[in-house]
Write a structure and sequence with these properties.
- It comes from Faecalibacillus faecis.
- This is GntR family transcriptional regulator.
- GO terms for molecular function: DNA binding; DNA-binding transcription factor activity.
- Keywords: DNA-binding, Transcription, Transcription regulation.
- Helix content is 28%, strand content 38%.
- The N terminus is likely disordered.
- The chain has 278 residues and is of the alpha+beta class.
- It is elongated and about 60 Å long.
- The chain contains 10 helices and 14 strands.
- The strands form 4 sheets. Strands 8-9-10-13-12-11 form a 6-stranded antiparallel sheet. A 4-stranded antiparallel sheet has the order 1-2-3-4, with no helix packed on it. It has a two-stranded antiparallel sheet with strand order 5-6.
- Helix 3 packs across helix 4.
- Strand 12 and strand 13 form a beta hairpin.
Length: 278
């Protein structure tokens, strides 16, 4: 029997294909979809992904502490109504991502890495810490007006030759997490007070300057800390760091911020769920 969407639309299934009948006055319009049932299902989030996100969210919300055991495979099977194989797929991926570790015949436990940054949204370090109810502070190394380099003029599409340069160490609960080296579009921001550079730049841009941040084009690679970053982040100079280049723009397309953030890999983990598309 056809399923009624509304008074004017009927949908019928025929050999895994959809035929839609749209009634308008006395005429019948037909929309024919060649999508297979399997193709429609691809759009749904796989169950093992939901399990991963559930565990990660519990870690972020501190429902699990470091080295604390999470639910058993049997408990997760009952919670999500899935097979043990699906649960094991989720746990195996989390083990490979260094989120949890497994103790044979005992269970799965939370790794020491407990801070995650998801790629599904644009949040500042301050905002990430606020969600986890952690204390975020800054040690400002540099806060001054400078002449823009040729690269900055090109990447930021500057109308003027001036940028406001901010270098700072971001600390979480008193421990160095990352080092930020940012150049701000002086035409948009003007002078940035030291007390602002010590807190959240995003908050200043949006709430004090009424600017609307839209997106950030980001690239990630790995570098060695070196002497300067090693000193500020309290790591050995040959320690690898995750380097994130961010080019942040407003709704009107103007670039407001260009810079690098260097993360300690023992303090921060980036989390991404990637969906296969054909």
């Amino acid at each position: 029997m056809p399923h009624f969407i509304n008074h004017n639309l009927k949908v019928a299934k025929f050999r895994s294909k959809e035929i839609c009948f749209f009634f308008f006055s006395k005429h019948v319009y037909i929309w024919y979809s060649t999508c297979r049932g399997d193709d429609v299902m691809v759009k749904r989030k796989p169950q093992y992904v939901k399990i991963k996100e559930y565990i990660i969210q519990n870690i972020e919300d501190e429902k699990y502490n470091e080295n604390e055991q999470i639910e058993s495979e049997h408990a997760l099977c009952e919670l999500f109504g899935v097979t043990r194989m699906t649960v094991r797929q989720a746990l195996t991926e989390l083990i490979n991502e260094n989120v949890i570790y497994s103790v044979p015949k005992v269970g799965s436990f939370v790794c020491k890495k407990s801070r995650f940054k998801s790629f599904d949204g644009l949040n500042s370090v301050t905002e990430d810490c606020a969600k986890k109810k952690e204390d975020c502070t800054s040690h400002v190394v540099l806060n001054e007006l400078e002449e823009a380099t040729a690269l900055m003029k090109k990447e930021m599409a500057l109308e003027d030759n001036k940028v406001w340069h901010v270098k700072r160490v971001r600390l979480v609960n008193g421990e160095p997490l990352c080092f930020e080296d940012d150049y701000c579009n002086y035409d948009l921001t003007g002078d940035i007070p030291l007390e602002v550079s010590s807190t959240s730049l995003f908050n200043h841009f949006e709430n004090d300057l009424n600017l609307h941040i839209a997106f950030s084009d980001q690239q990630i690679d790995a570098v060695l800390a070196g002497e300067e970053l090693g000193k500020y982040l309290q790591v050995d100079p040959v320690t690898p760091l995750l380097r994130v280049l961010s080019i942040t723009c407003l709704h009107n397309g103007k670039c407001i911020e260009y810079g690098y953030t260097y993360y300690r890999v023992d303090k921060y983990t980036f989390n991404q769920v990637a969906y296969r598309r054909k």
